[in-house]
Structures are given as structure tokens and as C-alpha cells.
Amino acid sequence: MRSLVCAQCHVEYYFKGDNKYVTFPWDKGMNADDIEKYYDTVQFADYVHKLSRTPIIKAQHPDYEVFELGIHAQRGVSCADCHMPYKSQGGIKYTDHHISSPLANINNTCQVCHREGEAVLAKNVYDRQDYVFNLRNRLEKQLAKVHLMAKFGWDNGAQETEMKPILQLIRKSQWRWDFITASHGAAFHAPIESQRVLGDGMYYAMQAEQGINDWILKRCNRQVRNA
Ligand code: HEC
Ligand code: HEC
Ligand code: HEC
Fold first, then answer.
1. Pairing of strands 86-89, 21-23
2. Domain residue ranges of the chain, discontinuous segments joined by +
3. pTM of the entire structure?
4. Do residues 128 and 187 lie in contact, with contact meaning Cβ atoms separated by under 8 Å?
5. Each residue of 81-92: pLDDT tens digit?
6. Å from CA of 166 to ligand 3 middle
7. Which CATH number fits domain 4-226: 2.170.270.10, 1.20.140.10, 2.60.40.10, 3.40.50.2000?
């Protein structure tokens, strides 16, 4: 309950159908791949990208879903353990409702369970954020590049059937980038899962680049033959 109370809002959802019914896309599972399968099955897109014409799934904030895949969740630690530390006043113990960064109060958050010093614990958090944000930034650049390359294809007469598999790869890549980027705290909540998802995102973006390069090569060969 001390996590589910937060999961009322800190989750992925979408507005289903014409009635815009708030729906959790969890029928096939709750990780990035399973949620993507759900959206692919119902052929959902939040919008079509203006340059590449990719049907994009926009992640909301799958904080709870990603958190659940980290070691703290797996050992039964709840959101409130870190974000709502205990206080006491007049002999009464209660949880702090001023929800903020656990690093603002390491003594009453991390150190309830860990014996390391404040600097070490803060560094543990910052190190994980650095690894994840580095990979995220690289993926971001690669994604921007393939959107532009896809536009180049369209501008130069690429056919729908040629572009479809490439746009599918861009959709997969951007979903993975967004899933982690929009999941607040993911880098610390579940660093391994975050890197797995971003790594897959990079893999799909590289494949998309390869796809467009193949198309360009094919087009050049045709022009040489026709000349
Ligand atoms: C009713 C919806 C709702 C619930 C329930 C909820 N949150 Fe939030 N939370 C939000 C929204 C919306 C924001 C962004 C607020 C903003 O940007 O001003 C937010 C922001 C935050 C932040 C960032 C705060 C900051 O100072 O930057 C943290 C941390 C957070 N929530 C943790 C939690 C935790 C932990 C729980 C459960 C104990 C929880 N939230 C329950 C909606 C909710
Ligand atoms: C083991 C401790 C721990 C648990 C458990 C935990 N968090 Fe966090 N959370 C953190 C830390 C550390 C950060 C990064 C804070 C920072 O960078 O200052 C963070 C960041 C966040 C942020 C981003 C805050 C911001 O200002 O950007 C949100 C939102 C959040 N957590 C929500 C949750 C929710 C919801 C849960 C449960 C599903 C949860 N957290 C469980 C430690 C925890
Ligand atoms: C309610 C207890 C609890 C709280 C609070 C807590 N942890 Fe943990 N932490 C654990 C447990 C349990 C593990 C898993 C260790 C194991 O099973 O050997 C763990 C694992 C870790 C690990 C190693 C796993 C990894 O992700 O690499 C780090 C680092 C860590 N915690 C840092 C923190 C920090 C920083 C905070 C405060 C923001 C914090 N913990 C808050 C209980 C807690």
C-alpha cells in the first residue's frame, strides 16, 4: 500500500477510444517491451512525427513500473520508505508528507537501512544517474539523426512499403528512450533495467540508420544503372 498509493498517479496510462477512458496498458505485462506489445496490438499512436512520419507512442511517467524492476522493490522497500521518512512530534511517529528527494534527508531515508556515510550514499545515486543519463543522451542524438534521415527518404521519393519497417524501428527506439526518460527517478530506482531498455533503444536506432542507408544505396545503384 505504501507504494500503490503513489502508483495511482506515477504510472503509464493512455486514453482509450473515443470516450477517452483512462486505461493502464498492462494486459501483457508491465515492462517497456510488454507495454509496447499492448500498444502495437491495439495499433495505438499518440501522434505521428512531423518529419519522419513515425507513429509515436508517448510515454507518460512509468515511475512505478520501472521501480518495480529494481532491487529495492524486489527486497520489499516501498516508495514511502525513501520519499516519506518517519518523523516524530510530541511522542507521535508519522510519515513526512512533504514528498521530496530522499537525498535531502539521508539520515532518515537511506540510513534507516544502510550504514554507509551520507557522501557514499549520495555518490551511489549520482553515479547511477550519470551512467544512465550518458547513454540516454547518446540515444537522443541517434534518434534525432534517424528522424532526419527518414525525412530525407520521404523527400526523395521513398515508398510507404520501403519506409514502414524503418519507421517501426524508430517507433521502438523512441518508445524505449521515452520510457526511461519520462520515468522519474528510474536511473536510481532500477539502474540495470534503465540501461537495458536504453541499450535496446540504441540497437533499434542503429538498425533504423542502417535501413535508411540501405535504401539510399539502392537508390544510387538504380540511378547509376539508368544513367
Ligand atoms: C494524485 C496524484 C499523485 C499521487 C497519488 C502521488 N503523486 Fe507524486 N507527483 C504528482 C505530480 C502531478 C507531481 C509533479 C508536481 C509538480 O511538478 O509540481 C509529483 C511529483 C512528485 C515528486 C517530485 C517532487 C519534487 O519536489 O520535485 C516526487 C518525489 C513524488 N511525486 C513522489 C511521490 C510518492 C513517493 C508518492 C506516494 C507516496 C506520490 N508521489 C504520490 C502526482 C502524484
Ligand atoms: C530506495 C529509495 C527509493 C525508493 C524506494 C523510491 N525512490 Fe524515488 N527516488 C529515490 C532517489 C535517490 C531519487 C533521486 C533523487 C535526486 O536525484 O535528488 C528518486 C527520484 C524520484 C523521483 C524524481 C524526483 C525529481 O525531483 O525528479 C520521483 C517522482 C520518485 N523518485 C518517485 C518514486 C516512486 C513513485 C516510488 C515508488 C514506486 C519511489 N520513488 C521509490 C529513491 C527512492
Ligand atoms: C527500507 C530499507 C532501505 C532503504 C530506506 C534504502 N535501501 Fe538501499 N537497499 C536496501 C536493500 C534491502 C537492498 C538490497 C541489498 C541486498 O539484498 O543485499 C538495497 C540495495 C542498495 C544498493 C545496491 C543495489 C544497486 O542498486 O546497485 C544501493 C547502492 C543502495 N541500496 C542505496 C540506497 C540509497 C542511496 C538509499 C536512499 C536514497 C537507499 N538505498 C535506501 C534497503 C534499503
1. unpaired
2. 4-226
3. 0.96
4. yes
5. 999 999 888 899
6. 41
7. 1.20.140.10
